[in-house]
């Protein structure tokens, strides 16, 4: 009978070695496949068949890059990191975060590949373990982090690596890039997910307030301290503390923070008892801490402590490829399950052109507003606020932009915050400081 080239050849019989490997892997809870050095999937365990095998298409005997990526070429030739290539070079395991096609649509998958050697030291097969990443979505989602652009994936891969450890994490990124959402995802992916996550906004706190908020105070410690109050460090016991805007911590408090991190102990204000803290630290800032250290505005020793694992969150302009995905997600959220909202291609193109100094928060606010005008459920260019006349530098949280802003900018506080590229929290605080609220 003539051979039909479109039908893949039946898989070759497995070697005894691979066969025993497969029966071993069948009892593993995590999805795993066995590959030959030529990218062919030789076998898959039960968990893989359950999670990834539901498309109805055969995968045994197929190339891994075709099944997982719908590519015609191995990942490294398609401009991606190929763990097989790397494992071959290293003669050891390699791990990478990829977006895979799955029966549920695109998903972030943490892929770990281990080479199997024969008695002569040659690689005969690879075992690939796949874990679906739950901290972010590669398709429109009703909540949490969404994204699939390379710059976002890089930050997500770092999150996946560090979350299970106890290392402090430093999130660096402009306002509205998702630092708080990332901090929540680190906590939720860590072994402390069952414990509390305590968010501390460092920017609004004076020195004395910072200390009593963080460490708590004894009864009578100062005027107004009518009762003993536990501090946030105590509230965060067995959980995570997120110090947002750590660059705003006053110098005198930085030394107390350092002592807390180094010794794991602290005292309530007005107290003598030494208390033991147990928390995981996540800090965030939009400020250049290294430059602040050079200027003597931030303690170097504290910087080294918190900077153990920095993650840079990309501004939206570096991940314009995610704008459609983010827009779909926010429109779902704006609709709140009531009616489907869509965006027309011109409006989407317009969103993709804008510079977004307020990043994802600004995009979200623009879409929330536009959704109120979209009577027929379709967002058009006319529903978007006017684009800024000149693409100026990213507005910073300095006083000058804000000084005139409340009287000149119409609209909601969230729109104003977005147009200034600062968080609503920061705006609220600054307006209050200026007596404009
Ligand atoms: N990857 C993302 N996917 C979906 N929503 C996001 C993402 N990143 C941020 N957001 C949304 O954008 C808004 C701003 O995010 P977030 O508050 O985490 O930013 P931030 O960097 O902490 O801002 P700031 O420094 O001003 O406090 C929130 O509404 C958040 O839900």
UniProtKB/TrEMBL annotation:
SUPFAM superfamilies: P-loop containing nucleoside triphosphate hydrolases, PYP-like sensor domain (PAS domain). Keywords: ATP-binding, Nucleotide-binding, Transcription, Transcription regulation. Pfam families: AAA_lid_14, HTH_8, PAS_4, Sigma54_activat. InterPro entries: AAA+_ATPase (IPR003593), AAA_lid_NorR (IPR058031), HTH_Fis (IPR002197), P-loop_NTPase (IPR027417), PAS (IPR000014), PAS-like_dom_sf (IPR035965), PAS_4 (IPR013656), Sigma_54_int (IPR002078). Residues 386-408 are annotated as: Disordered. Coiled coil: none annotated. The keyword Kinase does not apply. Residues 145-372 form the Sigma-54 factor interaction domain. This is PAS domain-containing protein.
């Amino acid at each position: 009978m003539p051979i039909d080239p479109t039908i893949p050849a039946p898989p070759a019989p497995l070697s005894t070695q691979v066969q025993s490997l497969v029966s071993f892997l069948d009892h593993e809870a995590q999805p795993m496949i066995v590959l030959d050095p030529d990218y062919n999937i030789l076998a898959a365990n039960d968990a893989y068949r359950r999670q990834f095998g539901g498309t109805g298409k055969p995968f045994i005997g197929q190339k891994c890059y075709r099944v997982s990526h719908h590519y015609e070429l191995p990942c490294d030739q398609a401009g991606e990191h190929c763990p097989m290539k790397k494992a071959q070079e290293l003669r050891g395991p390699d791990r990478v975060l990829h977006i895979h096609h799955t029966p549920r649509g695109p998903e972030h998958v943490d892929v770990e590949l281990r080479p199997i050697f024969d008695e002569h030291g040659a690689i005969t097969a690879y075992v690939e373990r796949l874990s679906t990443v739950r901290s972010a979505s590669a398709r429109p989602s009703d909540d949490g982090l969404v994204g699939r652009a390379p710059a976002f994936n890089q930050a997500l891969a770092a999150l996946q690596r560090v979350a299970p450890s106890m290392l402090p994490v430093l999130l660096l990124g402009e306002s509205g890039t998702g630092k708080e959402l990332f901090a929540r995802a680190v906590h939720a992916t860590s072994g402390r997910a069952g414990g509390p996550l305590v968010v501390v906004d460092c920017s609004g706190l004076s020195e004395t307030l910072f200390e009593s908020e963080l460490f708590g105070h004894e009864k009578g410690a100062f005027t107004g301290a009518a009762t003993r109050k536990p501090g946030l460090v105590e509230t965060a016991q067995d959980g995570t503390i997120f110090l947002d805007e750590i660059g705003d911590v006053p110098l005198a408090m930085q030394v107390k923070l350092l002592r807390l991190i180094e010794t794991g102990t602290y005292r309530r204000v007005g107290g003598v008892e030494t208390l033991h803290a147990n928390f995981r630290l996540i800090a965030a800032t939009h400020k250049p801490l290294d430059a602040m250290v050079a200027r003597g505005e931030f303690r170097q020793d504290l910087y080294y402590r918190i900077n153990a694992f920095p993650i840079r969150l990309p501004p939206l302009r570096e991940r314009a490829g995610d704008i459609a995905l983010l827009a779909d997600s926010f429109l779902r959220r704006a609709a709140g399950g009531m009616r489907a909202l869509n965006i027309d291609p011109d409006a989407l193109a317009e969103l993709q052109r804008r510079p977004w100094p307020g990043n994802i928060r600004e995009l979200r606010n623009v879409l929330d507003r536009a959704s109120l005008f979209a009577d027929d459920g379709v967002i058009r260019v006319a529903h978007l606020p006017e684009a800024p006349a000149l693409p100026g530098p990213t507005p910073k949280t300095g006083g000058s932009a804000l000084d005139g802003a409340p009287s000149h900018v119409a609209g909601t506080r969230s729109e104003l915050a977005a147009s200034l590229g600062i968080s609503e929290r920061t705006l609220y605080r600054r307006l209050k400081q200026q007596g404009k609220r």
